[in-house]
Design a protein that fits this description.
The protein is an alpha/beta fold. It is about 30% helix and about 20% strand. Strands 5-4-3-6-7-8-9 form a seven-stranded mixed β-sheet.
């Protein structure tokens, strides 16, 4: 599936083409597609192929066509704090896009059959966090990828707000995938060569819609032996109070003026830290301690 959109010379041109073709409709979805360069996650040997509207596979590593991910991101109705499960997480590209939408308090989980794919996706996500321009890491839900078969998740352990399946689902497994969804949640999955959206209205009622005609390789059935030892339970520790405070501070630093920060009821030492953090990166910074109070830090910035 793919090829509906003209190839771009780079990521920005690809995203512009996807907007013009109406695959990307909302500003927030456009923002994250521009922030996450598809070429940085692309498994092919020729970087220019990353900006074509085509799926790609190299070894065990796979990535779907851009138009597919656009439809998924728009249909998911994403907001901060949601939980997301990516079945067949591949390069980690979609998980990174979603992580920017659901924010630091969301859960971002992925299941992938092959260990080398997990290693590949982690390396790409870490590289993104290091080099992405305009990214505040405190606004991102870091993906947690695990090795396992997508059909071996324990549905009674945790249910999710959003689930995406990156492989064709046989009809006999449709009920299983639906069992992973919370009431009010959304499942997007290829069934019978159609990308389907299922929204859970109640414990028994679903609202469904067709998104796109697609062709996906089918889910791989689990081995019959040792099935009991292969059940997947993805753990997630709650954030500590220190981490929550850090997220809150870093999220509010950007976009605030020094005057508004100074108006906050914060300790002097913390206000100094915030002023220091907000200075432009091109300036040379030096920290000096003055006075007898070892806990008060004065910030000196040299041009």
């Amino acid at each position: 599936m793919g090829g509906a959109v003209s190839a771009g010379q780079d990521n920005d041109e690809l995203v512009t083409n996807l907007c013009e073709a109406n695959y990307i409709k909302s500003r927030e979805v456009e923002r994250v597609f521009r922030l996450v360069d598809r070429g940085d996650f692309f498994p092919g040997d020729y970087p220019e192929d990353a900006y074509k509207d085509l799926a790609w596979k190299q070894g065990n590593v796979h990535i779907s066509a851009p138009c597919i991910y656009c439809e998924v991101m728009e249909a998911f109705e994403l907001q901060e704090g949601l939980s997301f499960l990516n079945l067949g997480s591949g390069t980690g590209y979609l998980s990174t896009l979603v992580g920017l939408m659901i924010g630091p308090y969301g859960l971002n989980h992925g299941v992938e059959l092959y260990k080398d794919v997990i290693e590949y996706s982690y390396s790409k996500v870490v590289n993104f966090l290091k080099h992405a321009k305009g990214l505040n890491p405190a606004s991102f839900a870091m993906p947690n990828f695990v090795v396992g078969n997508c059909l071996m998740i324990n549905p009674s352990y945790r249910k999710y707000d959003r689930v995406y399946c990156g492989a064709g689902c046989p009809l006999e497994h449709e009920a299983y995938l639906k069992s992973l969804i919370k009431v009010g949640g959304i499942l997007i999955v290829p069934i019978r060569d159609t990308l389907m959206k299922y929204k859970r209205i109640s414990a028994t009622d679903w609202e469904e819609s067709n998104l796109l005609p697609v062709q996906f390789a089918p889910l791989i059935e689990p081995e019959k032996t040792d099935i009991a030892d292969s059940i997947i339970e993805i753990t997630a520790e709650p954030y500590s109070l220190q981490e929550i405070c850090r997220f809150s501070i870093l999220q509010n630093i950007r976009g605030n003026t020094s005057k508004s920060i100074r108006q906050l009821p914060l300790p002097t030492s913390l206000l100094g830290y915030l002023d220091f953090y907000r200075e432009p990166q091109e300036k040379k910074r030096r920290v000096e301690r003055k006075g007898k109070d070892p806990f008060v830090m004065h910030i000196v910035v040299k041009s």
